[in-house]
Every structure is written in structure tokens, then in C-alpha cells.
């Protein structure tokens, strides 16, 4: 049985796809995001209901920020259109199973990619998924003006994105992705489901596999919970009556991973400040320089620069002015 190329392939880099990809990648899964198509977000002239942007945000900037976040999380961003998602065949694509590929993603230009899991997070009317369901139940027939039309059934997937097709999750189209904020929420929910299912494949049981994805202040840990042994006790108490024997190797392995995961979510003040600074820089890189000057004023920006940086900038301008134009005769 050949190993899949990727743990997860996400089709679409809109709010739902990016959210699902980031959640999966942050848990250590190998994720590729395919994106080349006309997204619902791209049809908007300006986005005014996304939290954190008081005056709204243009769609191009938001898309750039989301894609940068996907790459920062460790995902591979592939500029290619997915034409179909298929089951593995008998032509060395692999065979289905917990360790092998469940699905094959065929893009328009690149080579096919095998994956344990695929998150459908783009519309295209769902045509690229046709044939995965033996009963074709993912499509519904509608009557319009005496003519019948097929479209993807928005209720085909469960609330967490799971579907009857092994390895396939649907984040979009769904009945919850009418606007960017709800699409992102749906994507996050599906991403968490993907993480939980991957953990279950690795030996976790369902109650233990449900994790959270956030970063907390280390200062919030009191003396009791700063001790890793207290987390071990908590895990043992929580899962003592679970489906896995507490004295088994499997239980010990999952407990160690769960405790490490919990403790790693806490950061000290220096790390918190470093992450805040990195977040500000990532936003600033995509802001128009004139807008920054208008918002803060030139004096405030000069005050924020140290004297050496200002002197070096001025010296550079003077040298440029003195240097003859190489293009002049």
C-alpha cells in the first residue's frame, strides 16, 4: 500500500478553505490547498461585515492575508484548478485504507495528488465531486420554469462537514456559507473534524480527539496547573471510563500527546509580544504606504524610526542625488 502524497487536500482558498487548512496544518497534518477559480468572495466589491476591520476591507487584501496565513501555517498553496476528485483505482494510485490514500485529486495542469482526506471548500456547483457517491445523492434536482436542473445538495454533508464518502468533507457549498464570516466558521468546524478524525486514525478515541486551537497566556496557569503531573491526573480522571484501558500502551501514548498538546498552547509574555509584533508586521506589509501616513501622520512615523535608520535613509537619498544618471549620455 503506497502512502498518500498529502494528509489533507483542500479545494478552494476562500474563507472556508483557509480556515479548514489552518486548523489542520496547525495540528501537524501535511496540507495542500488548491485554488484557481472564481470564488464567491471575489464577487464582492468590498467586505464590510468581517470582524476586526472597522471600515471594512477590500477583497484583494483579505484574500492575500488569508493565503499568507495558510502558507505561514505550513500549507502548500497550489495555483491550479481541480477538475475532479476520484476514488483510488487499480493503476498504482494507491488503495484505500487508514494508512493509504482514500481519494485522488486531479488538477487541470499538474499531476494527480493522492490524499487521506479532501475538504471541498469551493462551489463550482460541486461538479468536480460527481461520481464519488455511488447513489449520486450529493446532487438534487430542481424544477425551474418547466426545466429540470441539478445542483449540489447543501444538506448532503453533516454539520461538521463529514459525508457518506470516506475521506471527503464539505465546507462549501453549504447552507452556512452565505457570507464570508459564516463560511470561515464552517471551515473552522470542518477543520477541527478533520483533525479529530486524523487523531482517531492514529489511535485516539473520539472523546480524547476533540481538541481546541488557541494560544493562551502562561501567566493564567496557577501553580497547580503549571505542573504537568496535574494534567496527567486530569486526563486519567476524564477518560478512566472510556473505551481504552487506562493501563494500556495506547492509553499512555495518547495521554502523553494530549498533555503535550495542552501545555504547548500556553506562551510566556515574550512569546506573546513576539507573536503580536509578527501579526502587526504581516498586516502592515499589505497596507498602502500613503494610507499608513494618512492614518498616523508623518511625524508619528518618523518618531517610530530610530535615528540611525533615518540617518541611513537620508544618506542614501543624498548619494543617489550625487550619483550621475547611468542612462544619460
UniProtKB/TrEMBL annotation:
Keywords: Flavoprotein, Oxidoreductase. It holds the Pfam family Pyr_redox_2. The keyword Ribosomal protein does not apply. SUPFAM superfamilies: FAD/NAD(P)-binding domain. It comes from the Archaea. Signal peptide: none annotated. InterPro entries: FAD/NAD-bd_sf (IPR036188), FAD/NAD-binding_dom (IPR023753), Ferredoxin-NADP_redctase_2 (IPR050097). The keyword Phosphoprotein does not apply. GO terms for molecular function: oxidoreductase activity. Residues 85-111 are annotated as: Disordered. Residues 7-46 form the FAD/NAD(P)-binding domain. Gene3D superfamilies: FAD/NAD(P)-binding domain. This is Thioredoxin reductase. It comes from Halorubrum tebenquichense DSM 14210. The lineage of its organism: Archaea, Methanobacteriati, Methanobacteriota, Stenosarchaea group, Halobacteria.
Amino acid at each position: 500500500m503506497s502512502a498518500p502524497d498529502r494528509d489533507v487536500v483542500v479545494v478552494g482558498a476562500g474563507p472556508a478553505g483557509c480556515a479548514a487548512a489552518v486548523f489542520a496544518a496547525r495540528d501537524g497534518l501535511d496540507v495542500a490547498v488548491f485554488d484557481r477559480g472564481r470564488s464567491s468572495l471575489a464577487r464582492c466589491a468590498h467586505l464590510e461585515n468581517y470582524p476586526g476591520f472597522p471600515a471594512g476591507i477590500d477583497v484583494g487584501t483579505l484574500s492575500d492575508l488569508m493565503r499568507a496565513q495558510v502558507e505561514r501555517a505550513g500549507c502548500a498553496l497550489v495555483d491550479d484548478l481541480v477538475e475532479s476528485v476520484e476514488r483510488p483505482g487499480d493503476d498504482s494510485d494507491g488503495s484505500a485504507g487508514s494508512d493509504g490514500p482514500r481519494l485522488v485529486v486531479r488538477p487541470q495542469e499538474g499531476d494527480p495528488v493522492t490524499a487521506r482526506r479532501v475538504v471541498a471548500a469551493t462551489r463550482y456547483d460541486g461538479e468536480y465531486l460527481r461520481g464519488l457517491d455511488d447513489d449520486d445523492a450529493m446532487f438534487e434536482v430542481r424544477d425551474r420554469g418547466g426545466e429540470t436542473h441539478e445542483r449540489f445538495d447543501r444538506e448532503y454533508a453533516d454539520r461538521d462537514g463529514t459525508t457518506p464518502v470516506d475521506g471527503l468533507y464539505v465546507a462549501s457549498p453549504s447552507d452556512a456559507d452565505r457570507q464570508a464570516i459564516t463560511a470561515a466558521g464552517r471551515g473552522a468546524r470542518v477543520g477541527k473534524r478533520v483533525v479529530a478524525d486524523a487523531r482517531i486514525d492514529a489511535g485516539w478515541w473520539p472523546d480524547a480527539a476533540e481538541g481546541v486551537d488557541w494560544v493562551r497566556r502562561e501567566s493564567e496557569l496557577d501553580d497547580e496547573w503549571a505542573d504537568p503531573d496535574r494534567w496527567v491526573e486530569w486526563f486519567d480522571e476524564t477518560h478512566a471510563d472510556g473505551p481504552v484501558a487506562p493501563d494500556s500502551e495506547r492509553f499512555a501514548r495518547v495521554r502523553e500527546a494530549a498533555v503535550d498538546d495542552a501545555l504547548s498552547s500556553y506562551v510566556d509574555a515574550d512569546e506573546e509580544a513576539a507573536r503580536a509584533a509578527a501579526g502587526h508586521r504581516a498586516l502592515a506589509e499589505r497596507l498602502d504606504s500613503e494610507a499608513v501616513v494618512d492614518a498616523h501622520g508623518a511625524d508619528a512615523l518618523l518618531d517610530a524610526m530610530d535615528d540611525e535608520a533615518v540617518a541611513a535613509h537620508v544618506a542614501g537619498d543624498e548619494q543617489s542625488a550625487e550619483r550621475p544618471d547611468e542612462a544619460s549620455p
